[in-house]
Amino acid sequence: MPKTADTLLPDPNRWKALVFIALAQLMVVLDATIVNIALPSAQRDLGISDANRQWVITAYALAFGGLLLFGGRIADLWGRKRTFVVGLLGFAAASALGGAASNEAMMLGSRALQGAFGALLAPAALSLLAVTFTDVKERAKAFGIFGAIAGGGGAVGLILGGFLTEYLDWRWTFFVNIPFAIVAAAGAYFVIREPAGGRNRSPLDIPGVVLSTLGLVALVYGFTRAESDGWAAGATVGLFVASAVLLGAFVLVESKVKSPLLPLRVLMERNRGGVYLSLGLAVIAMFGLFLFLTYYLQIVKGYSPVMTGFAFLPMIAGMITGSTQIGARLMTRVAPRYLMGPGFLVAALGMLLLTQLEIGSSYAGLILPAQLLLGLGMGTAFMPAMSLATHGIEPRDAGVASAMVNTSQQVGGAIGTALLNTIAASATTAYVASHAAGATNAQLLQAQAMVHGYASAIWWAVGILAVSATIALTLINTGRPGTTTVAAGGAGAGTDAAAAEDDVKIPVIAH
């Protein structure tokens, strides 16, 4: 069947489409942090107990992390554009419910719904980007912008959350999502044109859905319980054992069923596997740092919520510069591992500076340069990582491959917050015990212990980023971008360059 001219031409509305895809991604990413700043006010107004306040964060993380693979598969089945729009409208409705919450149950339910619709939205957004931008250089620019948003959106959430909480009301941290979602959904409906033939219409793998969802929920919840109950607590250990059994059973099922939820070919390709692993580890380090710096600036330094948000601006500037000016410009010239590996190492250098944190540390002399290095490094590494998430993928698997990179980030974020916070808390307790005898000012001792705990946890973050760099440099072996053939024939499509006559030539990262 002859190729039509339309098949080979890029979508004329692709840059407009990027605006709406990026807007949706920003909404999902910043929602992960915007609620943190509003949480004390919401807790007071709704009468949420100290024991239950973590569920405002955890309910979102459990639903989002647990349902991401299912969301990616739905995107491949329904079509990415339809899934994207449904996810946006559902997210807006859940946000309205959260903003109008009158009690604890209504708040927690709305957060779980936000997570569920976010799990539809996030993989659909990334896979739409992958199939919309087919030119190598344009693809690099598009993923540069997307990577900057994915990396910097959390810090933007801190700024926006500070403004909304301080000058309006905590409820606006939910209501602000509604215009974002409506504009993105309307734009997507009228502008985005999904290429034909990329759907996977195989029946849903129900056992895979159940096992993966329960396994990921148990894993995320296990780290949450470790933070509050300790690593040796029976509930914590039980959740980790259950997660290992469920995810092991999931891998076994996926290797046997005819139409798996997560085809193992998506994971076994070494470049994609390297991205999922290195990015997940890097996010562990970054999310832990967001938590420590927020508490350090507000509690130790006495910054207001708005000042704290602005204090993160250098990191955002670094991420945007790293993604769009370094990563995007070099991606078409050098192999991705030479951007990701050094990027993670530069970020580790920024973290290393922060291990010197003390009560009297200067923002301009220590925190600002550390944030710039961290932002530049993570921005440079995030951009090729986002692009490689769909490296050489068949169109029928684009949604689930996109879901995997989101899953690695979400699970990494949950693990990072719990793991590093537990390390910091243990170091703080040990510091107080060893210095209590000679202390004359209990309040000063507590502040010194807190900062010591942060610095101790940040040392772990340095090591984790070094491991991320090592994985990126050794496991990812694809060369610089080239052009190969990706079949667009739906469920039966292959990746052979000598495939059927009506295959579509799409530039992707070449081996």
TrEMBL record:
List the membrane topology term(s). Multi-pass membrane protein
Query: Principal place where this protein is found?
Result: membrane
Location comes to: Cell membrane
Which InterPro entries does its entry note? Answer: EmrB-like, MFS, MFS_dom, MFS_trans_sf, Sugar_transporter_CS
Residue intervals passing through the bilayer: 17-39, 54-71, 83-101, 113-131, 143-164, 170-192, 204-224, 230-253, 274-297, 303-326, 338-357, 363-386, 457-476
Segments forming domain Major facilitator superfamily (MFS) profile: 17-480
KW Magnesium (keyword) present: no
UniProt keywords (A-Z) are: Antibiotic resistance, Cell membrane, Membrane, Transmembrane, Transmembrane helix, Transport
NCBIfam families named in the record: efflux_EmrB
Query: What is the protein name given in its UniProt record?
Result: MFS transporter
